[in-house]
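Tokens in:
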């Protein structure tokens, strides 16, 4: 858990925490449920959208941290299918904030070599937001230093349903034979195809559930839950999460003495 990781590290600077990381034991892919924006704002007497705006600064810092560590993939849960049930005023504000983020950050993503890819039922987004999503995808499609997946109108169950539907169509059309289908084959129909499964899931704000996020991909993922609200989760918090991750023994169903330090990495 997060606070346990912090206990003996409070006196260290960010640079000292960075130096403690073992570069051979870093995750290849980090997934994050960015929770607590609204509560952060409410604690300060601010409108909820102010928390979402502040949370963008955390996104920026974690992207930078991933690039500094040569972590190849980052998947962030930005807007779930369930979020459509929120008040229309908040949804509209979130969509405007998404557009502003994409407009303001596109050049910075390009500078960092980060390829942006939206996952989920993205066509559900308002047309102006969707146009910006597609534009940033096009402008960054050639980059390969970091794959940034942003889950928008996303649900883990619907992702699996969509994958199975596409696979069924290919079987029906004769492009795929049933005997060809195994886990690896089905994985090729998921929105994260081509990437390793997340090695580390981080969820902020004290909640300890995965909330319909990457249900297939998280089968063997290490999970890190912290009470820190997302707008307060900056570079230091990310370093603490990674240091805690490096303490874990990832067995993948094996007995300990058969596991190599590189297993799953």
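Residues out:
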């Amino acid at each position: 858990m997060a606070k346990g990781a912090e206990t003996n590290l409070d006196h260290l600077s960010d640079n000292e925490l960075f130096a403690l990381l073992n570069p051979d034991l870093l995750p290849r892919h980090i997934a994050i449920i960015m929770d607590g924006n609204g509560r952060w704002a409410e604690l300060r007497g601010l409108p909820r959208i102010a928390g979402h705006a502040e949370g963008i600064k955390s996104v920026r810092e974690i992207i930078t941290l991933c690039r500094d560590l040569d972590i190849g993939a980052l998947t962030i849960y930005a807007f779930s299918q369930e979020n459509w049930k929120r008040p229309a005023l908040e949804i509209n504000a979130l969509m405007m904030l998404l557009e502003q983020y994409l407009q303001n950050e596109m050049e910075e993503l390009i500078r960092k070599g980060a390829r942006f890819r939206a996952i989920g039922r993205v066509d559900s987004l308002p047309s102006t937001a969707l146009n910006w999503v597609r534009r940033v995808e096009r402008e960054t499609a050639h980059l390969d230093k970091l794959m940034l997946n942003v889950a928008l109108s996303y649900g883990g169950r619907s992702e699996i349903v969509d994958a199975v539907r596409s696979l069924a169509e290919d079987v029906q059309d004769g492009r795929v034979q049933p005997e060809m289908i195994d886990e690896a084959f089905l994985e090729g129909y998921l929105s994260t195809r081509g990437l390793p499964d997340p090695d580390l899931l981080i969820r902020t704000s004290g909640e300890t559930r995965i909330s319909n996020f990457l249900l297939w991909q998280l089968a063997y993922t290490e999970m890190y839950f912290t009470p820190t609200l997302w707008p307060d989760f900056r570079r230091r918090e990310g370093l603490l999460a990674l240091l805690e991750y490096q303490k874990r023994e990832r067995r993948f169903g094996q007995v300990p003495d058969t596991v190599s330090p590189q297993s799953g990495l």
